[in-house]
Structures are given as C-alpha cells and as structure tokens.
Amino acid sequence: MSASTPRGALDGIKVLDLSRVLAGPWCTQMLADLGADVVKVERPQAGDDTRHWGPPFLKDDAGRDTREASYFTACNRNKRSITVDMAHPEGQALLRRMAAEADVVVENFKVGGLAQYGLDYASLKALNPRLVYCSITGFGQDGPYAERAGYDLMVQAMCGLMSITGHADGQPGGGPLKVGVAVVDVFTGLYASNAILAALNARDNARNGTGEGQHIDMALLDVGMAVLANQAAGYLATGQAPGRAGNIHPSLAPYQDFRSRDGNVLLAIGNDGQFARFCQACGHPEWAQDARFATNTARVQHRAALLALMEPVLQTRSTAEWIALLEDKAVPCGPINTIAQAFDDPQVRARGIRRELPRDAGDGIAHVATVANPMRLSGTPVSYHRAPPALGQHTDEVLRELGLDASAIAALKAGGAI
C-alpha cells in the first residue's frame, strides 16, 4: 500500500485466508477492501480452484486469452497470494507461525479437515488466544449433515430458494431455477465478514472485551434459510409454503415486468400513492378509485383483473417513453438491462463501479477490471491498492516479513513446502 493510500477502517488487522472458491474469498475481500492485510494461501502450482474455472479467461496485453479464469478476480482483490503446501510439515509450521501473528483466520475445509495439520481452531487458539477463527462449511460444525460437502447450487435447492425462483408450473418455462449468481455463497461471505467484525469488536472492546478471540461457525444452509426473508416469514405466519410466480411479488401489485412497445419495462409500485400517480400519468385515474385497486391488499387480491387492464396500456409506449413519463412522478420504473447495458448506464458510470487495477506480476496482464465495493465510507474509504494477484506473487515478500532470509526461502522451495 502506498503512502498516499488512505488508512482503511481495518488498517492493522492481519488476516490469514485459507479459503478458496467463493464464500470464504468473498468474506476476505470485504476485509481487504476495508484495509486489512489479507494473505491468501494457495496450493503450489494449482492455486485456488477458481483460477481454472473458465472460460472466460483474462486477456494479456496482446489481447490473447491467458490461463487465468476471470472467476478468480471476482473475489480476490487487495490480497497477497502465497503458495504453501499445508500437507508438508514445514508448510504447516509456516502457517502456524503466521497464525500466531494474525488477528483472523478464515477457512472453508470440511469439518475437522485442518486438525491433521495442526491448523484447526483449538490448535491455533493455543498459539494465539486473540485469534478470531471463522469456519465456513456447507452445513455447519454439527448436525446430521455436518460431514457433507456443500455447494451453492445444492444449498439453493435445499433451502427452498429454487422453489420460489422461476415461472410457476404450467406456465411456459415453468419449473425451479437457481439464481443467476451464486447468491448463497455471496451472502455467506457477507454474513461471515459481519461476524468477524463483531468478534474483533468483542475482543477489543475496552468496556467488556475479553481480549480473546472466538470461533465462528458459518454454514451455507443456515444462510440460505436466513435470506429467504419475507418468504420465510410468510410461511412461518401461515404454514403455507410459497411457490414460484415469475417476476410477480407475492405481497405487492403491480410490482413486476410488463411488455412495452419495444421490449420490457419494470414497474416497482410499493404504495398506494405511487399507484395513483401511475394511473394519472397513464391516462386512467379511475383505476386508483376502483375499490378492487384502491389499496395494495385489494390489488394483490384482484391482481388478474388489474393486469388485464394494465398490460394493453403498457404496450402503447416504448420502454424509454415509460421511464421518461414516470421519472418525475416518483413512480419506480426502469429497463431490464443486460450486464453490458448495466455497466454502460450513466449512473453506474458516474459512481465508478468499474475499476481498472494495475497488476505488476510479470505475467503479461497489465490491468484487471473489477467491480467496486458498494460501501462508501466518508472517513475511512474503501481502497483499491492491489489487483487480484498472480499465483504465489507475494510468497517471498510475506516470508521475508516473517523473518526468513533468502537462503531459508530457497530451502523451503527446494523441499516443496512452498
């Protein structure tokens, strides 16, 4: 980090990242963006699995595909990469030495998988009682499924998310669908980073802090259930499991996509005032006075009748014309963009969502494009000081900080520990 880089909120926090794929790396990228020094430990020669999950691949300076998948870059910004063989006794010793100086360890191995290497919570706590140790698994540290491997797609199915995603049975394209992003992994990373911050505060709080860290048990299935949000609340209140309804909202109307004259347009009307203003703007103020549509509850109950009236009207204007008509009337309305269109949106561009980070790993990749962290802190802003690293790019640097000289590092390389 350069001298001109603002100090982050987590400046001084050291994180040893033993995780791979998405949930764990998403968590540690959040911490790195906030200023923590995150050292990502990868397997020699192979690295994180997602380095190979392509296409698509990063391109070199000449525009040719490299052997590094773009997937990896989604969740490994601002980290330093080292390669260590944790199955090697000297590799294990290195990692224990690093953990003794760390504030946080994040891992996503199977339950009990790190005990054989002396890298489990009990072993590392004995070396460093202040350590906050976060384990991320599919199903948690206990329960009948604890030993199972867990993946986002599996958990989206098991937690019920796929049962409420997609068109209803009997409709064209009906059937359960996964979300287009591994949202359970992403949410697990977010919950994990929140839990880590809470544990650090509990450790360091001057009034009631213990001075000790703790073990955090994060499970994809737990998170999948938690983010069902209003759908889970509805089931708990009624005992009736909700089903799939496409883009219709079960508790709001009209709150969905419609055919416009040239494509699709989305209306997200969340209260009666917005509905009345929409009706006035589209030339049908009488709809808002109709007892079937005057309140949101009534509109939900008479959704079919309301849509029968609205659908022909929505097709009389283009998407852009609807947006222009409703924009100054505080009626939420917008396009259904492709990802390319979203990145080209004037608001997205104004907010600087695309970030180009220089990479000096000597691998022919000069810059890596990433998506900005959405947290905007006025005093300790997120920084973008490192591109997602090349495999093992910082091994020598980190080991020198541990106190190893060139001959000791060379010996570790020769012995296969790094």
TrEMBL record:
Which SUPFAM superfamilies does the UniProt entry name for this protein? CoA-transferase family III (CaiB/BaiF)
Do you know which Gene3D superfamilies this protein is assigned to? Crotonobetainyl-coa:carnitine coa-transferase, domain 1, formyl-coa transferase, domain 3
Pfam families the record matches: CoA_transf_3
Tell me a Gene Ontology molecular-function term this record carries: CoA-transferase activity
Q: Which residues form a coiled coil?
A: none
What are the entry keywords?
Answer: Transferase
> How is this protein named in the record?
L-carnitine dehydratase/bile acid-inducible protein F
Native species: Acidovorax ebreus (strain TPSY)
